[in-house]
Amino acid sequence: MVGIGPGDIALLTQQALAALGDCEVVIGYKTYTRLIGNLVNDKKVISLDMHDEIKRAKLAIKKASQGKDVCVISGGDAGIYGMAGLILELLNKEEKDRIKIEFIPGIPAVSACASLLGAPLMHDFVVISLSDLLTDKELIEKRVRLGCQADFIIVFYNPKSKKRRLLFERIWQILMKYKSSHTPVGIVQNAYRDNEKVEITNLKDMLNSKIIDMSTTIIVGNTKTYVKGKFMITPRGYNLARGKNRRSFTR
Amino acid sequence: MVGIGPGDIALLTQQALAALGDCEVVIGYKTYTRLIGNLVNDKKVISLDMHDEIKRAKLAIKKASQGKDVCVISGGDAGIYGMAGLILELLNKEEKDRIKIEFIPGIPAVSACASLLGAPLMHDFVVISLSDLLTDKELIEKRVRLGCQADFIIVFYNPKSKKRRLLFERIWQILMKYKSSHTPVGIVQNAYRDNEKVEITNLKDMLNSKIIDMSTTIIVGNTKTYVKGKFMITPRGYNLARGKNRRSFTR
Predict the structure, then answer these.
(1) pLDDT by residue (tens digit) across A123-162?
(2) Looking at chain B, which residue has its C-alpha nearest residue A28?
(3) Which of A117-121, A147-151, B56-60 has the lowest mean pLDDT?
(4) Do A103 and B89 touch (CB under 8 A)?
(5) How far from A68 is each of A25, A104, B6, B68, B137, CA to CA, in Å?
(6) Least Cα separation, residue B111 to chain A (angstroms)
(7) Exposed, middle or buried, A39 (CB in 10 Å: 0-12/13-18/19+)?
(8) Which of A97, A186, B155, B225 is within CB 3.0–4.6 Å of B234 for a Cys-Cys bond?
(9) How far is it, in rounded angstroms, from Cα B218 to Cα A171?
(10) What was the ipTM of the complex prediction?
């Protein structure tokens, strides 16, 4: 299981490169097999559609059971809303004992987007997917509501799709109810890919953005988040005015 | 600003390697400058103590203002509880215009630990630091309470230090109040470093773990999380029993 990061080959880890170099078969969603195409010219590459995850997972298990060295790739980190879970869920007992599985972490979308916005994630945050195909809308709304009440920074994956636009408006209403309309919002589309777009706006104006779709990640600040030039910053809590270095654990 | 990932050099991205290779000065907490020591033999390396973050940041700004190409390194991702925020906060207007800053994302602890546990982060999650030096205890407790009520997977950074043990027990009491005592808990100490230790236990027994300190990350499951062999899995919501592929957005 290999996380290939947001898209730019320069953001693959050395471990991911080594795994892709060593394997015999690469299986993944076609957008991702295309992104790493040049790295796996000499491999058997199986590209499948967005909604073929179960097929992808079963095929990978079958090939691995036959003794093949298989890389299943995920965009971002295979361990965050990625293919890692499905593979483990589908393994039967015999396969579980026979196949050796390794998870190679990748740069997740949350890190990639934060890096293009400045430093929005210096404090506690939640990550919520707005895809309601595998999660009830009510649970998504509840999570946003409680996330606001706890003053978390909120990161949204998959905010909108062609068929799903109303949920995003409903979520915006919840955010407006609990957070100040001036709360900074960072919006990143196609991070580290062609047509990358980055916007910093505020909660009030968020719905006007033209770059929100399935390839977008949104970061909504907490009560302390502010904008400085082209950067979105959530302070960690240092008392900088007094020049005093309170003991802390920033790494 | 370079995130160096959890510790193993194989988990640096190519972009991070390139930045470290090109720069003149490397500034970081001494544990991290040691981890990447072999990569930056030929550079001026400035290693500072854990609690010298403001000093580190000011020094980096000073060197960069003098025209030096400086890498400030953070463990994991510089953008998640890392050095990115402090640098941006401390920049004055003149420096902000003069210095070109780039943020190179790294594999964050949350990804590194998840990859060693299986697939615990297939659904919405919160990340909470239990360091109470820059955050009020009450706010930390409130976030844990609301995180439980929303049935998030909860990831804890910095769960315990030598001086801070009681807060962790208090947090455990909150978790026990809201979550089942059988909830799977993954505990990873020194991920991808010497003395790496991985445990999968449950909420009831979590306090008995001997590997919880400042170098540990803990992942507490949601109501759906389960253990299969040596793996911790949070299902995404596929209806696998019926063999039906509900449309979804797993990448």
Answers:
(1) 999 999 999 888 899 999 999 999 999 999 999 999 998 8
(2) B251
(3) B56-60
(4) no
(5) 7, 18, 29, 49, 51
(6) 6
(7) middle
(8) B225
(9) 29
(10) 0.94
Average pLDDT over residues B97-124: 97
How far CA A47 is from CA of A29, A64, A121, A162, A229, in Å, comes to 6, 17, 34, 23, 42
Sign, Cα dihedral of A166, A169, A174, A177: negative
pTM, rounded to two decimals? 0.95
Q: Of B17, B214, B237, which is closest to A135 when you measure between CB atoms?
A: B237
Q: Are A88 and B119 in contact (CB under 8 A)?
A: yes
pLDDT of residue A251: 53
pLDDT digit string (tens) for B197-232?
999 999 999 999 999 999 999 999 999 999 999 999
Q: What token pair was written down for A16?
A: 């991911």
Question: Residue A91 pLDDT > 50, yes or no?
Answer: yes
* Dihedral pair phi/psi, residue B188, rounded to 5°: -130, 125
Mean pLDDT estimate for chain A = 93
B66's CB contacts (< 8 A; 6+ apart) are none
Least confident of A91-105, B149-163, B234-248: B234-248
Q: By the 8 A CB rule, do A168 and A160 touch?
A: yes
Q: What are phi and psi of A48, to 5 degrees?
A: -125, 170
Q: Are B65 and B98 in contact (CB under 8 A)?
A: yes
Closest residue to B125, CB basis, from A10, A17, A127? A127
pLDDT band at A45 (very low <50, low <70, confident <90, very high): very high
DSSP string computed for B76-111:
B-TTBSSSHHHHHHH--HHHHHH-----B----HHH
B207 CB near a chain A CB, below 8 Å?
A: no
Smallest CA-to-CA distance from A117 within A8, A227, A13, A210 is with: A227
B220: how many CB neighbours lie within 10 A of its CB? 28
Please answer yes or no on whether B249 and A103 come within 8 Å at the CB atom.
no
Alpha-carbon distance A133 to B185, whole Å?
27
Do B237 and A134 touch, CB atoms closer than 8 A? yes
